[in-house]
């Protein structure tokens, strides 16, 4: 299996605080990697470093066969890294369909002049983009919501739409930041199945931040655990579940509730 | 102190303090131009901005006079022109600057009445004479300021002549517009009074903002009044837009008349194009054609007040010549009151006609003529009408 | 007063108001587009409008001198519009790159001060170029009128009204339908999320400046043709009035800017019926004060950022 994403000694500091310290990570293609850790462990910071939102202070990030260190967000995105957000960040005043079309932005060639001239290749491309967007809407089960403003969609649908928008980028790597946050058990179960489906049907790798241990342990091929910006464990869900360091990280600091779930899930 | 020393001290005192007065006594003080140093003629006129072509024309007129005159009693002449912005604050600043310059003998300016009025107070304080070629507002010579003179006319004459002409043409219902300046507003109001005195009717009076470009709304408001004449008191930049936009809003049978501010080839006829056809303005009688030829060969087409500026500068220089006293060391001493009196006593045939001043500083016997923009033989120009 | 309310005056004032309103709206769009994306007021926008007007003036003067305008008057005017738009677009892009981008993450006051500085700088540059003299647009086409019995409309007015509407419809379609337009809306809503969707945010901001500037340039040439006089200070009052129009409609809101422009134009035209004409400018700024007191987010409402 080829390695799609690799970080070597990745470090990120905010002033005196070391948010990520010397993180080594490797992700093969077509694999779901769960990323867990207590609040403030540096999971979202890692996403932001991978997608170029934050410049990194040390180490390197290899995507495919090149370093993407220091590249801007829109470049990493066009290379094939797409993501969703912990708190949904759809373009609320645009329709569901338009949100997906924006996702396709970097895959389209026509520029401003094409838009002004309205030449045939532009129109053809636009038409194709609409077709693709419809497909994606169908894929996430929002077939008849295309013209609804994103801000007017129910919460669960917004989560799905955000994933659809990320998929419109045609990513090779999908970063999902707590996709089931705020969902009820039924919705969570549906979404979990859907993530599996994405992986198998679209053949892409997924890096998943998730607090719901049932979800993480259920669909991850491998799990990495961060604590205080340091990788403390890595392995199959089974191995991680039994790792004493992990149990301590959760039990020691976050109380029994979280710990029990981590261990028994 | 002995009696002898007391007498010596007293004598020394008289020699030191009263000595100069016994020779060049002047109750307003004196201006001293050191030997070999030039005499400066100050000038305040608009060099940048919307009416700059008018102001630069004035500067050219004065410049030509200075060059023609050459020198005074062995001292060379320098024209120091400053930008007075056609308004009060910069004119006052120039007045303070030039009145405190020991080599400035007097000033030609300021261009606009709104500048001349506050600046003349400063000139009065320092008793530095000023001769304006273009400030026509009524009140300038009615304020008892002895150092103010002008080679142009007084707006009382301009308003009277314009109103008499309008009534004679049968334009008895008029609308009066002005640019809210000291010059435009007083002239327009005076015009209105003259119209009513002669049995005409002023249907409306409106103020416009200098620098504004859109007068269609106010002209549309005037339209239903069906005036026979719109009189505008102000400058060409706005005047030409009023003339243009009158046609636009449909006031096509109404005549347009304005003042000397609009008597400019460049800013009124050229800028107005076809819309300037048939417009009336008031101005002095045409200056000496020989001079005009000479001027235009040097500076290109004349606009408005260059002849008046030429005469103003010439009068000032001739008065300096008369009042200046050459000292043995080659310096010049000019009594300020003597200079003022020399100007007041002017009797001189200038290129704009005979120039003399009345007790208020107004030019005596000035005439205002009516001009109409006509298009003859493919050329558009101001044609003097017989009136 | 009653004589003022006859249908002829009302129709005439509507025409006057729509003409100047269309110009205000075109300029206002530049303010609103930039505000929508960057949450800053580009106070140098009036100067971009002024440079556009001079760009068109330079082109027209060239055509007059070369005799091209005698044979192809229509083409000369189209070319003047294009020249003006290019001049302003380049200027707008330079302004963004030099005066605003380095301050993108600075406190909000910094780019505002930079904008005011740029505005004064550009005024002075043009003052040096034209030696502070008023310039007069050449009369390439004589103004003719379309008569309808008791009222008439000038071809110039018709041209400005329809031209501004056309440009605005074009802009609206561009923003709504095209890929770049959608990207502009996405950046306006959430700059970081848009970037993470593969949109080059800097490029979109640059395009926004270019489009806003080109619209202002079109307004500049219209003003030149319609009012004939242009000078280096010509951007100041229309700039502030267009800003007022943008705030009236709800700053950041594209249809709002259009509506605000027409509203202001009509308010000015009808306002002089009820008060002396010298207070025309007072109407605009009086309206601004009233709107800011009673409806601070404008008629159509401000587009509030998700982040704000």
Q: How large is the share of residues in beta strands of chain A?
A: 15-25%
The helix content of chain B is 40-55%
Helical run tally of chain B: 12
> What is the CATH C-level name of the largest domain in chain A?
Alpha Beta
CATH topology (fold) name of the largest domain in chain A: Rossmann fold
Distance between the termini of chain A: 29 Å
Could you tell me the radius of gyration of chain A in angstroms? Answer: 19 Å
Largest interface: B-C, 38 and 45 residues
Structure description:
The complex is a heterotrimer of chains A (265), B (387) and C (308). Chain A is α/β, with parallel strands linked by helices and 265 residues long. Chain A contains 11 helices and 10 strands. In chain A, strands 6-7-8-3-9-10 form a 6-stranded mixed β-sheet, with helices on both faces. In chain A, strands 2-1-4-5 form a 4-stranded antiparallel β-sheet, with helices on one face. Chain A folds into 2 domains: 1-80 and 171-265, Rossmann fold; 93-169, no CATH class. In chain A, helix 3 packs across helix 5 (120-139), helix 5 (120-139) crosses helix 6 and helix 10 packs antiparallel against helix 11. Chain B folds into 2 domains: 30-153 and 288-355, 3-Layer(aba) Sandwich (Rossmann fold); 156-283 and 368-384, Rossmann fold. Helix content of chain B is 42%, strand content 23%. Chain B is built from 12 helices and 18 strands. Chain B has helices at 3-24, 52-69, 88-99, 113-126, 155-168, 182-197, 216-222, 236-249, 265-272, 289-299, 306-323, 336-344, and strands spanning 30-33, 39-45, 71-72, 75-83, 104-109, 129-132, 148-150, 173-178, 201-207, 229-233, 255-258, 280-283, 324-326, 332-335, 348-350, 353-355, 369-376, 379-384. In chain B, helix 3 (88-99) runs parallel beside helix 4 (113-126) and helix 11 (306-323) crosses helix 12. Chain B is elongated, with a radius of gyration of 24 Å. The relative contact order of chain B is 0.15. Chain C has a single domain (2-294), classed as ABC transporter involved in vitamin B12 uptake, BtuC, CATH 1.10.3470. Chain C has helices at residues 7-38, 45-66, 68-71, 73-100, 109-130, 155-177, 179-189, 191-196, 201-227, 236-249, 254-274, 280-294, and strands spanning 135-136, 145-148, 151-154, 229-230. In chain C, strand 2 and strand 3 (151-154) form a beta hairpin. In chain C, helix 2 crosses helix 9. The relative contact order of chain C is 0.20. The model of chain C has no long low-confidence stretch (mean pLDDT 91). Classes of the chains: A alpha/beta (265), B alpha/beta (387), C mainly alpha (308). At the B-C interface, helix 7, helix 8 and helix 9 of B face helix 1, strand 3 and helix 11 of C.
């Amino acid at each position: 299996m080829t390695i799609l994403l690799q970080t070597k000694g990745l470090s990120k500091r905010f002033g005196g605080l070391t948010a990520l310290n010397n993180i080594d990570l490797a992700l093969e293609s077509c694999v779901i990697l769960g990323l867990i850790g207590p609040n403030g462990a540096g999971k979202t910071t890692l996403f932001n470093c991978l997608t170029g939102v934050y410049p990194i202070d040390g180490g390197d990030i290899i995507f495919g066969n090149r370093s993407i260190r220091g590249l801007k967000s829109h470049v990493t995105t066009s290379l094939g890294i797409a993501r969703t957000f912990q708190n949904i960040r759809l373009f609320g005043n645009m329709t569901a369909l338009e949100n997906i079309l924006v996702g396709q932005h970097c895959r389209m060639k026509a520029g401003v002049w094409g838009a002004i001239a309205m030449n045939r290749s532009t129109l053809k491309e636009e038409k194709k983009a609409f077709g693709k967007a419809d497909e994606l809407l169908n894929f996430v089960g929002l077939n008849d919501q295309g013209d609804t403003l994103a801000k007017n969609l129910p919460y669960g649908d917004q989560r799905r739409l955000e994933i659809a928008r990320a998929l419109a980028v045609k990513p090779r790597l999908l970063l999902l930041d707590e996709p089931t946050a705020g969902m009820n058990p039924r919705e969570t179960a549906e979404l979990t199945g859907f993530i599996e489906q994405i992986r198998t049907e679209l053949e892409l790798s997924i890096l998943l931040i998730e607090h719901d241990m049932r979800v993480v342990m259920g669909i991850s091929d491998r799990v990495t655990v961060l604590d205080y910006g340091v990788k403390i464990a890595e392995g199959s869900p089974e191995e991680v579940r039994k790792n004493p360091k992990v149990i301590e990280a959760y039990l020691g600091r976050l109380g029994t509730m979280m710990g029990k779930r981590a261990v028994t899930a | 102190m002995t009696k002898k020393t007391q007498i010596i001290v007293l004598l020394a005192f008289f020699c030191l303090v009263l000595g100069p007065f016994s020779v060049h006594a002047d109750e307003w003080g004196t201006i001293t131009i050191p030997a070999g140093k030039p005499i400066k003629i100050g000038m305040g006129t608009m060099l940048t901005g919307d009416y700059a072509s008018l102001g630069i024309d004035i500067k050219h007129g004065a410049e030509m006079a200075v060059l023609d005159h050459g020198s005074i009693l062995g001292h060379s002449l320098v024209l120091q022109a400053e930008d007075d912005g056609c308004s009060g604050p910069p004119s006052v600043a120039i007045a303070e600057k030039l009145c405190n310059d020991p080599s400035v003998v007097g000033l030609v300016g300021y261009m606009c009445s709104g500048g001349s009025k506050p600046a003349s107070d400063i000139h009065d304080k320092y008793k530095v004479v000023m001769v304006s070629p273009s400030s026509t507002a009524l009140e300038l010579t009615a304020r008892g300021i002895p150092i103010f003179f002008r080679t142009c006319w007084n707006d009382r004459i301009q308003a009277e002549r314009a109103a008499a002409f309008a009534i004679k043409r049968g334009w008895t219902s008029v609308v009066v517009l002005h640019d809210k300046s000291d010059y435009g507003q007083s002239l327009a109001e005076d015009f209105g009074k003259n119209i009513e005195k002669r049995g005409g009717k002023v249907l409306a009076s409106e103020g416009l903002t200098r620098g504004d470009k859109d007068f269609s709304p106010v002209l549309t408001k005037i339209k239903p009044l069906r005036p026979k004449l719109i009189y505008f008191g102000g400058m060409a930049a706005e005047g030409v837009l009023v003339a243009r936009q009158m046609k636009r809003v449909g006031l096509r049978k109404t005549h347009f008349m304005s003042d000397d501010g609009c008597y400019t080839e460049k800013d009124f006829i050229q800028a107005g194009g076809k819309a300037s056809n048939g417009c009336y303005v008031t101005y002095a009688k045409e200056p000496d054609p020989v001079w005009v030829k000479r001027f235009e060969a040097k500076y290109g087409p004349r606009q408005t007040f260059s002849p008046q500026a030429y005469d103003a500068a010439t009068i000032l220089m001739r008065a300096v010549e008369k009042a200046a006293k050459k000292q043995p060391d080659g310096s010049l001493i000019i009594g300020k009151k003597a200079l003022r009196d020399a100007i007041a006593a002017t009797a001189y045939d200038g290129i704009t006609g005979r120039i003399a001043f009345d007790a208020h500083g107004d030019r005596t016997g000035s005439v205002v003529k009516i001009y109409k923009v006509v298009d003859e033989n493919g050329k558009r120009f101001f044609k003097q009408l017989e009136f | 007063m009653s004589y003022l309310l006859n249908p002829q005056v009302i129709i005439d004032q509507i025409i006057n108001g729509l003409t100047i309103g269309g110009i205000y709206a075109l300029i206002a769009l530049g303010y609103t587009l930039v505000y929508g994306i960057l949450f800053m007021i580009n106070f140098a926008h009036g100067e971009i409008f002024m440079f556009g007007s001079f760009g068109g003036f330079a082109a027209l003067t060239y055509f007059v001198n070369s005799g091209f305008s005698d044979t192809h008057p229509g083409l000369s005017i189209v070319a003047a519009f294009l020249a003006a738009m290019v001049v302003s677009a380049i200027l707008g892009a330079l302004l963004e790159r030099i005066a605003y981008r380095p301050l993108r993450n600075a406190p909000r006051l910094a780019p505002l001060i930079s904008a005011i500085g740029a505005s004064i700088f550009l005024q002075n540059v043009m003052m040096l170029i034209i030696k502070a003299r008023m310039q007069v647009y050449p009369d390439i086409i004589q103004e003719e009128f379309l008569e309808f019995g008791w009222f008439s409309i000038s071809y110039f007015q018709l041209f400005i009204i329809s031209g501004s509407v056309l440009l605005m419809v074009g802009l609206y379609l561009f923003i709504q339908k095209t890929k770049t337009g959608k990207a502009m809306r996405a950046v306006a809503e959430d700059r970081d999320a848009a970037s993470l969707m593969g949109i080059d945010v800097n490029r979109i901001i640059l395009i926004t400046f270019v489009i806003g500037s080109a619209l202002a340039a079109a307004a500049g040439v219209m003003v030149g043709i319609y009012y004939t006089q242009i000078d280096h200070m010509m951007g100041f009052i229309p700039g502030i009035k267009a800003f007022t129009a943008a705030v009236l409609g709800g700053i950041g809101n594209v249809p709002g800017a259009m509506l605000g422009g027409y509203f202001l134009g009509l308010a000015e035209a009808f306002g002089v019926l009820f008060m002396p004409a010298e207070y025309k400018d007072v109407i605009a700024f009086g309206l601004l004060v009233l709107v800011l007191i009673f409806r601070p987010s404008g008629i159509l409402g401000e587009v509030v950022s998700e982040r704000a």
